[in-house]
Inverse folding.
């Protein structure tokens, strides 16, 4: 394994246009994960949700594919708007996930990715993303840090799902 694959990548170290895992389990294609990419103007986030993890193996086998996703893109204006959406009921995205970032915080790339992930979890500006096999849901340019899923991880998850389908079959 290369040394770049063994180190933790912080959002401040993101290479432009490359997706990195920023949330979820270290085995993200089995238990779910959140990927993020910075393209200069926007932070793009995608949550990969394994069907079997969310609905169970028997029902997951009936879905027909192993993954579905949610995704969103946020620019600096959106991040500032999110930081300013606090209200008395606590429905703001940051309150929803239990974060306390002051509205006047310095908007480093780390803070922007954290806010974008909270907004995605909250559902703010989030949409259903692609669903299907690993090749359909994993972005083309993946980072090479210690826990971002690889194409090989995706193929393994696809094989595991095919085994689940064979085990439970279609009803």
């Amino acid at each position: 394994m290369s040394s770049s694959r063994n180190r933790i990548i912080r959002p401040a170290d993101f290479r432009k246009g490359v997706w990195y895992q920023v949330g979820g389990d270290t085995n993200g294609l089995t238990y779910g994960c959140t990927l993020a990419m910075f393209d200069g103007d926007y932070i793009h986030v995608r949550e990969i949700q394994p069907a079997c993890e969310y609905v169970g193996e028997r029902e997951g086998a009936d879905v027909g594919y192993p993954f579905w996703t949610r995704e969103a893109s946020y620019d600096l204006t959106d991040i500032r708007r999110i930081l300013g959406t606090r209200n008395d009921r606590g429905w703001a995205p940051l309150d929803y996930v239990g974060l306390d970032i002051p509205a006047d915080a310095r908007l480093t790339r780390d803070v922007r990715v954290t806010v974008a992930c909270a907004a995605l979890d909250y559902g703010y500006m989030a949409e259903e993303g692609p669903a299907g096999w690993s090749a359909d849901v994993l972005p083309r340019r993946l980072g090479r840090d210690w826990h971002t899923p690889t194409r090989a991880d995706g193929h393994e998850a696809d094989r595991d799902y095919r085994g689940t389908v064979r085990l439970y079959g279609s009803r």
